[in-house]
Amino acid sequence: MRKTVIILLSLLAFLPVRADEGMWLPALISQRIADMQAKGFRLTAEDIYSVNQASLKDAVVLFGSGCTAELVSDEGLLFTNHHCGYSFIQKHSSVEYDYLKDGFWALTRNEELPNPGLTVKFLERMEDVTAQVLKGYNPKKMDEEARLNIVRKNSEKLREAAVKDGNGLKASVEALYYGNQYFLFVFREYRDVRLVGAPPSSIGKFGGETDNWMWPRHTGDFSIFRIYAGKDNLPADYSEDNVPYRPKKSLKISLAGVREGDFTFVYGCPGSTREYVHSAEVDYIANVSDPEKIALRTTRLDIMKKYMSQSQAVRIQYSSKYAGVANAWKKWQGEAKGIRKMNTVAVKRRFEKDFEEWARGTQYEGITGQLANLYAARNPLYRAAEYYNETVRSIEKLQMASGRKVDPKDYYQPIDEETFVAMMKAFDGALDDSYKPEYFIEGRKKYADMERWKDAVFADSLEAKALATSLDEFYTKNLIPQVNALNRSINLANRTYMKAQMDYLRDKDFYPDANLTLRVAYGHVEGYSPSDAIYYKPVSTLKGIIEKDDPDIFDYNIPQELRDVYAAGGHDSQPVCFLATNHTSGGNSGSPVLNADGNLIGINFDRVWEGTMSDIVFDPEFCRNISIDVRYIVFIIKEIGHADYLLDEMTFVQ
Ligand code: ARG
Ligand code: GLU
């Protein structure tokens, strides 16, 4: 029985990409457009991406270092997520003006707040530069090192040529398909981006960590910024004389609403996926890395939670750190579970076996065995490196002793002491002594138990420094170089294996793994069944917020004003969030979610945790992205922000 399932699943790998999987390059979208149109899209490839005329790409920007945002007016107004704008909102906040707590709405352009360091990047163009990047490379005569040098030199030349006009131009050359293809991306970067509006956190973060990665969801996860430019509309440093940027294209906002089955697409910058890797890597992720990191983080979160629930001051100090630790912790749980449920390791093993039969006698013969050996050599080292990151580097005292910055305002020593004991015990217990510095092994003998060692480290800065330095040096000088060397070999083998898979499955449509370059994912609005006897509808409403509302639970305590608006009546069916089948990843936060006519219907901000294995394997049954409905944004701007004047510069369509 099990065997037939595996064979069947393995056969599925031979079929073209299944429903709604994939994150496609905008410049090559003409290869997908027939499928998009068959699924309901009413525009053309040129409407999505064009270098000759304004297209949707001109309304999408990379926001800061890892989010997406979109233009929603001809005066440079931007929508992104609340969690993407969070650190900027926080920087403007003080005890007197707590914009995180109370929200912020600039009443006039003069009140819009500058954010030094925040930039947005427009994609000017992207092009296949594989031939130029590999010019001078001779695979028969040159090794990987020589290839890397050539790639580096040629890429540098391409970048220089691409930005020679200045005016904020930036360029990068990115490897796709593990370096089987290279693309040049040319951006224009604007560096005067001001905060215009944000709802109170009790709306923008509604549900907090409790609801994070989950459905039903009711988070008003949006914030509003504006791009400013010089009088010539080109990038300029912050100046009072700057004027709102006039975009080539801005999005119209659809008030028509979403219904199950509606075509949707997400235009944004997913960060990192690994869809084509060897079973050994998936096995490591699902059965070693994820479970071990989850356990370590559970311990840390429990320690933080204990002290946070005892004191409001500690809760404020640690809420941002807690959110950071909890976010990946929760994602990994869904990922490991999803991979196991889909039997991905077995499916991939079977695939590798079939592949090797096909590859016999070709240049690809043996590549999967080679990869298996490389992973077998790398995984124990990589596991040790991950342990260092999750244990040693989670102790703030050791971070400070190593000269890294820890904000004393957000430091509470009892949490750190308890973390030290728990994490150092875990570190010592999980790793062989060959992964530990001499100083640590000596110290363990000297102190006999971790409590006593903790007392010494926290009482004596020399002891803290000596321990921190020895661990740091072992990690950076011993462990990481070995991991990197093996990773380079793995990368090289993956380049061959990727090419081999593309030759083997000639009929399959391959999309490149995500690498924070601009992508289009398309799908449709759809609910899902997370487990037996439960079905989740795809749209959540204000009624659900009121159901969750509880002044005694921090994550669910909404502003009184929202209660009042609701009590006044007529808003029961006000939509809040919706689910769709678009293939997204971290970095897609803030991405515009568009309908069949290319109009804005929502902003992407999350996935459901049962579908987070989509970074490795996509399951159309469980993989859903979560968006805030644009009509909820309009509702909050009006009813809570009383900032209707912002709506005047937007264009609404039915
Ligand atoms: N899970 C989303 C993402 O990966 C939202 C994270 C921010 N929200 C939170 N509650 N931690 O970025
Ligand atoms: N919240 C994520 C982000 O910041 C998006 C969720 C995901 O990983 O899909 O990009």
Tell me about this structure.
- It is a single chain.
- This protein is α+β, with helices and mostly antiparallel strands.
- The protein folds into three domains: 17-110 and 196-232 and 249-273 and 511-653, Beta Barrel (Thrombin, subunit H), CATH 2.40.10; 120-190, no CATH class; 279-504, no CATH class.
- The strands form three sheets. Strands 1, 2, 3, 4, 5, 6, 7, 8, 9, 10 and 11 form an eleven-stranded antiparallel beta sheet that branches.
- Strand 7 (169-176) and strand 8 (181-190) form a beta hairpin.
- It is globular and about 65 Å long.
- The termini are far apart.
- The model is unreliable at 11-18 (pLDDT under 50).
- The protein binds arginine and glutamic acid.
- The site of glutamic acid has 9 residues, from strand 18.
CATH architecture of the largest domain: Beta Barrel
Structural class call reads alpha+beta
CATH topology of the largest domain: Thrombin, subunit H
Low-confidence stretches are 11-18
Secondary structure elements and pairings:
Elements: H1 2-12, H2 33-38, H3 45-48, E1 60-63, E2 67-71, E3 77-80, H4 82-91, H5 99-102, E4 104-105, E5 113-114, E6 120-128, H6 130-133, H7 144-162, E7 169-176, E8 181-190, E9 192-198, H8 201-204, H9 208-211, E10 223-229, E11 243-244, E12 253-254, E13 263-268, H10 279-310, H11 312-341, H12 344-359, H13 367-390, H14 396-401, H15 413-430, H16 438-447, H17 450-459, H18 461-504, E14 519-524, E15 539-541, H19 542-548, H20 560-567, E16 575-580, E17 592-594, E18 600-607, E19 625-629, H21 630-639, H22 644-648, E20 652-653
The structure holds arginine (ARG) and glutamic acid.
